[in-house]
Amino acid sequence: MSIIPISASACYKVEIAGGLLSSLGQRAAQVVSGRVAFVVTDDVVADFCLHRAVSSLEDAGFRVFTHIIPHGEQSKAGPNYLELLNLLAESRLTRSDLLVALGGGVVGDLAGFTAATYLRGIPYIQIPTTLLAMVDSSVGGKTAINLPMGKNLAGAFYPPKYVLCDPEILSTLPENVFRDGCAEVIKYAVLGSPKLFCVLMHRPIVEQLPEVIETCITMKRNYVQEDEFDRGARQFLNLGHTLGHGVELASNYTLSHGQAVAVGMAMVSRAAVSLGFCTAETCRNIEELLTRFGLPTRTEIPHCDLLQAALGDKKRQGDKLTLVVPKEIGHCILHRIGVEELPRWIALGG
Ligand code: GLY
């Protein structure tokens, strides 16, 4: 088993091992004193994981409540959040009890935000069931729901007590959900690991999943420890996300997060070539790797719609935005622009 300790405003461990889900109860009992657990999951994950999670918790002495939300980004919304808060209150969960987020980024963000705000904060555990959630969203304590104006516009930094990462769960994923996570893996390679980039280019990812997951989480851990509250280095993790969130919103979430991030990464790379930040070869390599993983690199969305959606990005600071721009594989820079420059980046990247 790999153990990655995270030491920021709170300290917790990410544990990675095949089959770890079966020992959830015993691990949960080590991080909370209460013996009531409320498990949130979605209708897809429920079919293949919920029973195992609940049995393990019950075997460890927990009384378990469950709540199943419809899968998909639309569930990360205000009404579901309020419903979940009410269910926790009706179940009389206390501050020593436990919320368990069993699912991908949507479940993790919704349950995490609910844990952050119910009774002004109760403990929660992340059990990511998608590659995307394993390598990115389950670690670092970002929790949020979407508002009609944009993604993750209401949220909190609220670290979990523990992250249980069982790569065996990934074998049950539909191909497109798995590919989504690959976009985030490629993001880490472009940000800081030419070695990972090379490995992804030349060896099937399924042959090396635990190592790839560990590499990405370790990189994320380093960004989170340096800048937990996203004022500096953590912003690198937004590579592809400023335009990507715009693509996701402008497509009305018909494009998945991973697909949108892939388009965002490719667009910012093409614009970076035109503006002299990186070579055409670097951009071609990024596009080639995304394409090999079956991810899109372009969108038909009109530039004006993309611009409007991207301007709603919560990371905008007044009339400034920070773009993450590739210089070469494994090296990116934070580039601050005025919002009036964004149309040019979109036009050059389109
Ligand atoms: N997903 C980006 C971050 O955690 O900062």
Give a written overview of the molecule.
With 350 residues, this protein is α/β, with parallel strands linked by helices. 46% of the residues lie in helices and 21% in strands. Strand 10 and strand 11 (331-338) form a beta hairpin. Helix 3 (78-90) packs across helix 4 and helix 5 runs parallel beside helix 6. The protein is globular and about 60 Å long. It starts with a strand and ends with a helix. The mean pLDDT is 95. The structure holds glycine. Residues 136-137, 140, 142, 230, 234, 237 line the site of glycine.
Beta-strand segment tally? 11
The oligomeric state is single chain
Bound molecules: glycine
- Count of helix runs: 13
Uncertain segments: none
The percent range for strand residues is 15-25%
Largest sheet: 7 strands, mixed
Distance between the termini: 43 Å
Radius of gyration from CA coordinates: 20 Å
What overall form do the CA principal axes indicate?
globular
User: Which structural class fits the helix and strand makeup?
Assistant: alpha/beta
If strands are numbered along the chain, what order do they take across the biggest sheet?
1-2-9-6-5-3-4
Approximate helicity band: 40-55%
- What sequence of helices (H) and strands (E) makes up the elements? EEHEHEHEHEHEEEHHHHHHHEEH
Average pLDDT across residues? 95
Can you summarize this structure?
The chain is built from 13 helices and 11 strands.
